[in-house]
Write a structure and sequence with these properties.
By secondary structure, the chain is of the alpha/beta class. The chain has two domains: about 160 residues, Rossmann fold (3-Layer(aba) Sandwich); about 200 residues, Phosphoglycerate kinase, N-terminal domain (Rossmann fold). It is about 35% helix and about 15% strand. The strands form four sheets. It has a six-stranded parallel sheet, sandwiched between helices. A six-stranded parallel sheet has the order 11-10-9-15-16-17, sandwiched between helices. Strands 13-12-14 form a three-stranded antiparallel sheet. α11 runs parallel beside α12. The mean pLDDT is about 95.
């Protein structure tokens, strides 16, 4: 993506102290890192800077300590996990600002990697206090942001510091920005968006933004029931936000004006109880009984949606089509994800997906590696889909 300085622009870093904002907010189990996905995502940047002789200083938050020191949320707990992925020892520095941080950094040599203590141990971090950003900047010579997942927060270590030191996007951030630009910034049309999940209320801004950006909006999950209800369909005891029917109608109207086609399921998989493998029926949406609930999109609708994707050049995906964690209500999500993956493999579709449930659903379908790009950023990805500015990204603009 143009307009952002990357590691290609950074010049000679030998012996320079490079503060690298990464995402080390990883799940833990029995005192050890349980999932190192976020650590692995930062490795290309860490290794590149280390190999070029930089002193690599990792900045991150861990949990929500609310501006106070808390030993259960110390980044010392993730040091072994970082060292394991990196393949050599990593130093821990017990503060991220002040004399303690400077003293720890002073003993490091070119190529060394260290993790500084949780930035959120200081109240100035989440407040984006200028004095805290100044103190952070004193610890380093250059700043690299490789944490897109924190880019929607205007914090000291994500936004404030970028105005005080030469600032660059790391390799993971660069890949994310390029993928997002290809998906909605400057996409190849026609563009399709799949938006699923339980509630319209959590995705109103996403839907409002997308109808003006995409050619096809595919709505699934519990959200689709609210849109079906707005069209006069009786959805029985399905999850449905009846108080948002007017909002759904407003989105239908906006889509009409923008020339965006909204796709809703016309056959659905229903059951009388939400449990694994209950008795189910596949019916037309107008045949849902009062004591039944819609739990997945039906096979005929999935086939029609697959045909839509075959006409598209770009796909943005956020949220499952059905209650995919509970079998057999994963079938529509898996089938459409596999179609998107096949189209991506053959080179006819650029596919970008993001959000926690989405990543889990694509992994469940076995196709996450086949999508063009899968973002592990939850809140930041959603705010990008809403069309909102991301402070941590804007601060990197050249």
């Amino acid at each position: 993506m143009t307009g952002f300085r990357t590691l290609d622009d950074i010049g000679d870093v030998t012996g320079k102290r490079v503060l690298v904002r990464v995402d080390l907010n990883v799940p833990m189990s029995d005192g050890a890192v349980a999932d190192d996905t976020r650590i692995r995502a930062a490795m290309p940047t860490i290794r590149e800077l280390s190999d070029k002789g930089a002193i690599v200083l990792l900045l991150a938050h861990f949990g929500r300590p609310k501006g106070a020191k808390n030993p259960t949320q110390s980044l010392s707990l993730v040091i072994d996990g970082v060292a394991d992925v990196l393949g050599h020892s990593v130093m821990f520095i017990p503060d991220c600002i002040g004399e303690g941080a400077k003293a720890g950094v002073a003993v490091l040599a070119a190529g060394d990697v260290a993790v500084l203590e949780n930035t959120r141990f200081h109240p100035g971090e989440e407040k984006n206090d200028p004095a805290f950003a100044d103190a952070l900047a004193e610890v380093g010579d250059l700043y690299v942001d490789d944490a897109f997942s924190a880019a929607h927060r205007a914090h000291g270590s994500t936004e404030g510091i970028a105005h005080r030191l030469p600032a660059y996007a790391g390799r993971a951030m660069e890949a994310e920005l390029k993928a997002l630009d290809a998906a909605l910034g400057n996409p190849a049309h026609p563009v399709a968006a799949v938006v699923g999940g339980a509630k319209v209320s959590t995705k109103i801004d996403v839907l409002k933004n997308l109808v003006g950006q995409v050619d096809h909006l595919i709505i699934g999950g519990g959200m689709a029931n609210t849109f079906l209800a707005a069209r006069g369909v009786d959805v029985g005891k399905s999850l449905c936000e009846h108080d948002l029917v007017d909002t759904a109608n407003m989105i239908f109207d906006a889509a009409d004006k923008a020339g965006c086609t909204i796709h809703l399921p016309y056959d659905v998989v229903i059951a009388k109880e939400f449990a694994p493998n209950p008795p189910t029926r596949t019916v037309n949406v107008h045949e849902v009984a009062a004591n039944e609930m819609i739990l997945d999109v039906g096979p005929a609708a999935v086939e029609a949606l697959a045909d839509v994707l075959k006409t598209c050049r770009t796909l943005v995906w956020n949220g499952p089509l059905g209650a995919f964690e509970t079998p057999p209500f994963d079938m529509a999500t898996v089938a459409l994800a596999r179609t998107a993956a096949a189209l991506t493999r053959e080179g006819s579709l650029i596919s970008v997906a993001g959000g926690g449930d989405t990543v889990a659903a694509l992994n469940h379908a076995g196709v996450a590696d086949d999508f063009t790009f899968v973002s592990t950023a939850g809140g930041a990805f959603l705010e990008w889909m809403e069309g909102k500015p991301l402070p941590g990204v804007d601060a990197l603009k050249a």
